[in-house]
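Last lecture ended with a question: if I hand you only a sequence, what can you say about the shape of the protein? Today we answer it with a concrete record. The protein is ATPase. Below, first the input exactly as provided, then the predicted structure, then a couple of comments.
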Amino acid sequence: MIIIADSGSTKCTWLFHDGGKTTSVRTRGINALQHTPEQIRETLAALPPCGPVSAVHIYSAGCSPAFPVSNEKLRRELEARFGAARIEVRSDLLGAARALFGRDEGIACILGTGANSCHCRDGEVVHNVSALGYVLGDEGSGAVLGRNLVNGIFKEHIPLRGEFLEACGMTYEEIIRRVYNEPFANRFLASFAPFILDHIGCPEVRRMVLRSFGDFAERNLSRYPKGLPVSFVGGIAAHFGELLREALAGAGYEVKEIIESPAEGLLKYHHGK
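The predicted structure:
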């Protein structure tokens, strides 16, 4: 049994491949930089029992050469859960690159709860413009769209205050508490993406989304070589695909491909099927 997993901060897709059959399972996301060993353990405990595992390839948020302690934390928990001889812990960005381009060259981008991008070639990351997270960066991500929505509503630039409070079932005070006093504010803010999509006909909301995607292009894509194909993975990219293509076209980029999950592409990368 070989396991391939793609994990963002909100959800993780696991593929269990036994050589002939592939089973897909979804759990909460794992971000090794943010989550404790106990939280990672709880997520792994939600997976069904499986036979002997020879290898685990996980591409996860919060994992990269810059965070060796986080990588090792996740590797230890995976080893304890599966006992596999081979465990490969890599970044979700590398997973996006391999799923989108295989061993070809291009600009691979993630737009989900968070955002990231890279210039990739031969199945490796050549250059990465720092994402910086939803406080300092993550332009175009679900967390930033949610943050901008809340900002626009309560600063009275988006005329949907009543509809928003009714939809989320919280007061202004509860929203502020969730953002500033509870963990995983990025997930909480990204949870407003369906409301944004439902109200995309509101001119102020539409402009907000286009501006955020334009910021992604200006702050990230502009740092890579011109003329390379640009492709995306992630729920925000998939559900806002039309506006994403429009915003990037306005910035001089053509989007080659948008997929919601890189899991199937990673299975093809590792096993050719």
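Comments.
1. The radius of gyration is 19 Å.
2. The chain is about 45% helix and 20% strand.
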